[in-house]
Design a protein that fits this description.
Oligomer: single chain
Radius of gyration: 20 Å
Helix content: 25-40%
Largest sheet: 3 strands, antiparallel
Order of helices and strands: HEEEHEHEHHHHH
Number of helices: 8
Strand content: 5-15%
Strand order of the largest sheet: 3-4-5
Length: 289
């Protein structure tokens, strides 16, 4: 995990519980979010691989590491006083041929993009890039990513067989931020995202029960911060209302995304209403009402 102690690439430097490379995700707490994404993927709708929270001890774990006083990941030494406990996520390996970088976006099945997108909207994923969408080719192989006919926009997406490729979303450590953060949705302008939801997808969204989801996370991941659950409530409520109003996946993603004109220099400072996403403005209006 970036900035975490004992980062294998040497990219360390902060204590567990401090703000990390994403300011709304604290160092050392990505594992909780990995598990949360799996728990929220009811019935494997988005195809998130099975993920569990594990606790392991070893003398080499976290030597001399310091913890922020607010970190929920503080563990005492074991009875032997030589080993330190470490919390991590453990995920089932997902067979795949490549990731989404290796294909033209129009090659992907509409349902696969919609299902991943619905999950990303619910968990406000701030790091959904092509590298964390795995692609599994059907038995016998799929057409080469560089073959003709893969870059045809909406017409190509509509013409592609529904089950050519299987998409597997991974790497959810940067979801469920503590505040309404600007998300990154790689699929936002893909042609599939502009197509209407299917009836099955609309039924799935309508059946989402955010109160039950919050109870689930509080029960299974009591260390997950309350602020993250509040974000889940806001995003799920917006998703359900927008889908019922016949908004497309792309439209809903844009409601959650801050204007592209927002300069990098203004991040972290007080922003004007014009720099807020429509979702943030709705929340501000509700707060002031």
């Amino acid at each position: 995990e970036p900035l975490a102690p004992n980062n294998p690439k040497g990219f360390a430097g902060r204590s567990l519980g401090q703000p990390g490379i994403k300011r709304t995700i604290r160092v050392g707490e990505a594992a909780l979010r990995e598990v949360a994404a799996f728990l929220l993927d009811h019935d494997g709708f988005a195809n998130v691989p099975c993920t569990a929270l594990v606790r392991a001890t070893h003398a080499g774990f976290l030597p001399g590491v310091t913890f922020s006083p607010t970190s929920p990941l503080r563990f005492a030494r074991t009875a032997s006083k030589t080993n330190i406990a470490k919390l991590a996520s453990f995920q089932r390996y997902a067979p795949h041929s490549c990731d989404a970088n290796d294909y033209g976006a129009a090659r992907f099945p509409v349902a696969g993009i919609h299902r991943i997108g619905i999950l990303d909207l619910r968990i406000l994923n701030i790091d959904r890039h092509a590298g964390n969408i795995l692609v599994n080719e059907p038995r016998g192989g799929a057409p080469s990513p560089t073959a003709g006919g893969l870059r045809g926009g909406l017409s190509t997406a509509l013409a592609m067989p529904a089950s050519e490729l299987t998409l597997v979303p991974i790497d959810h450590g940067f979801c469920l931020p503590e505040t309404l953060e600007d998300p990154y949705f790689e699929w936002l302008h893909w042609p599939q995202a502009s197509l209407p939801f299917s009836q099955e997808e609309l039924d799935y969204i309508a059946d989402l029960d955010v109160d039950a989801d919050v109870d689930l996370l509080q029960r299974e991941l009591p260390m997950l911060r309350t602020d993250c659950l509040r974000v889940l409530t806001v995003t799920t409520t917006l998703l359900k209302a927008a889908a019922a109003a016949e908004y497309t996946l792309s439209h809903i993603g844009q409601l959650m995304t801050q204007p592209t004109a927002l300069s990098k220099g203004s991040r972290g400072s007080r922003r004007s209403a014009a720099q807020l996403s429509p979702m943030e403005r709705l929340c501000m209006d509700a707060l002031l009402a």
